[in-house]
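In response to reviewer comment 3 from the previous cycle, which asked for concrete evidence that the modeling workflow produces usable outputs, we include below a single protein chain processed end to end. The sequence was submitted unchanged, and the resulting structure tokens are shown without manual editing.
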Amino acid sequence: MSFDVLQIRQQFPILSRTVHNRPLVYLDNAATTQKPQVVIDAIVDYYSNYNSNVHRGAHQLADEATRKYEDARDTVASFINANSRNEVIWTSGTTESINIVTHGMAQKLRSGDEVIVTQMEHHANLVTWQQACKASGATLLIAPINDAGELIREEFIKLIGARTRMVSIPHASNALGTLNPIKALISEIKKITANQALVMIDGAQGIAHSEVDVQQLNCDFYAFSSHKFYGPTGLGVLWGKENLLTDWPVWQTGGEMISEVSYQDAKWNTLPYRLEAGTPNIAAVIGFAAAINWFKQLDIKAVLRHEDALLTQATQMAEDFSGLRIIGSASAKVPVLSFVMDRGHPADIGFILDRQGVAIRTGHHCAEPLMNRLSVPGTARASFALYNTSDDVEQLFVALKKVKMMLA
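The workflow returned the following structure tokens.
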């Protein structure tokens, strides 16, 4: 199967627009990806032809919506090789997925227990565990990274012990692009703790840039978002092992997640519905299934090679660009290039690039402690996706020459 990036770009309507009278060069994919027409069509089709709430409606529209909605759960389960469709929980995004786990763990942790995260965490996988540990009296341990932005493996291993109850780490860093060897790390954690510690993976940046098989990984939870995988915003997935989720403390109460209610008490529904309170984001679920089915038609290995080539090109050009310093030089990375320049705050860099049609992200990228560890106030971040081209990389550096000239 061949990989034709120009043919793929034609499937994304937004990529043909202009910004400030310049062709759009969209390099903010770690924040959110653009959507192919098939995803847009799936959402429009739902609202145009069978808009209805799911499950209990006694009419054809509800039947059609429910079937599409539950088919999407099967699509996700198959895509990540879940053991059961019951292990796929719909959430509002990676952040809520992590919160469901931390909320449950806060009720299980005790004083003296330990939770391990890393210095490269997104706030969603740091603040949540901070609060869970504060609520329970457990201790939060922070695994260090080196100056390249890589986890110091021997130091990480030293932190794991008899008191370890949870290890929650990113598949890939959103701020640096560092791709963690999660399969090997999970194996070490399970071995050292005799399978007593739980492992959660923040997969927000990993799901679109690697082949995820949760059974092979042997993690206990894996969280990711639709909108970083060519699907709609406002939707995420929490995958968890069924034996854990079956009795996991409920996250929210209300409709759908109950099986029986009286004025005095309530009983919870079975999986997956016990962790899905209220009317779900039905349109987004259907759109996400369309995104996955679209993606599965591609040659995934060719996609990953293409993204690696873009990152290699961008890295080489950055290394040759006077006055620019790459932040995050791990040997294994997803296609993220974070950098600072000798002159100009990252916000100024982003502003000038935008006027030339180049969209990037600037700031601390919801990883403020990481920026402090690396002694930078923030970075400019260009992040690539499968529809980006070599010319996009060239245009980034043409625009950066303008930045350098204007800020001289």
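The chain has two domains: 5-31+299-406, 41-296. We consider this sufficient to address the reviewer's concern, and the full set will be provided in the supplementary archive.
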